[in-house]
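Instructor's aside before we start: the two examples that follow are unrelated to each other. I chose them only because their records fit on one page, so don't look for a connection. First example below.
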Amino acid sequence: MDTMRDRFAPLVTRLLDEDPRVVAVLAEIGADGFAEARRRHPDRVVNVGIREQLLVGAAAGMALTGLRPVVHTFASFLVERPFEQVKLDLGHQDAGAVLVSAAASFDWPAGGYTHMAPGDVALLDTLDGWTVHVPGHPDEAETLLRHAVAAGDDKVYVRLSLQSNARGLPVDGERLRTVREGRAGVVVAVGPMLDAVLDATEGLDLTVLYAATVRPFDAAGLRRATESAGTDVVLVEPYLAGTSTAAANDALADVPHRVLGLGVGRAELRRYGRIDEHVRAHSLDARSLRERIGAFVGAVPAGV
């Protein structure tokens, strides 16, 4: 199966054909995939070189002229390194852009810690007005990227990953989707964590919700689910553990509830290894998730 990033350049090339406002802004990473787009639209494919602060600053300037920039590089170079520009050039100036990352939390372990960004969504949470999409399949990535480009002049972050569920689900860029219904608690699986969560909760009396869009957080959807499934909530996210616990707590602020946030731990793993080894090291594999979720909710079998 092709990856989310395999779909990215061909889709943006089509968007450049379809919409004269769209401009692709790159910092060397992924530039080879835009050779045809650059031939067809030489004035709307801009490679600033390895200058990530300029990457975001230039995109903000383009946005202020009425263009819709699609900005791409690794997550650590797109959110963390140029964070001041994300905060000021985009946020303070109220300039919209679509930031599309690659490498996610630990998708290229050989690149080392400089190429890992498990805190990207949490960092964007310190700013106002961002929509954050975390697709779990290449089909969803295409849908959500089209949503993002069409979203007027909004500030949108699309987090691409090599990790993927086996199949894509219909996503609307807004609401939580109910995948399984139960009565003993709610598990929210974000993006590529869905398959592991479904395996981990097989046979347990739990509702499983799926989120491919995490900001704005679908508070109403979570509340509806807890009305029949109870107010024990587990969040399983492919980035920093606990990133969305405040959003879940706010959604349930007027009712007694418990929230457990599972995700990537804060400790730096210096043996870089493979993606699957990082998944296990952070206890995000199905077996570990079953133990952690089961201990939290009491491991109630379905039908009991």
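Example two begins here.
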Amino acid sequence: MSEISVVAVNVAKAGKEDELAALLSGLIAPTANDAGMIRYELHRDLDDPGIFVFHEIWESRKALDAHLSTEHIARYRQLSPDLVERKELFITAKIG
């Protein structure tokens, strides 16, 4: 199977931007140890500091699914409802 690309957008609730930034930044170090991770980058919108975008590349869907089952992602899921107004997730496969 080809590489899997993920774009995950998190929009902070008003006044929760810094807390969400800390929560999302805290995912970077543990994810570096997740098998099959090629790229895992967190970006913040230049015009709206409440918008955060992860750009991820995984070796396979199996590697991504394993990442989504980790303790650090479970912690994010537990804490994010108080911080996130809106989420969008795009999962695509590399063509060619």
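The beta strands are 4-12, 37-44, 51-58, 84-93.
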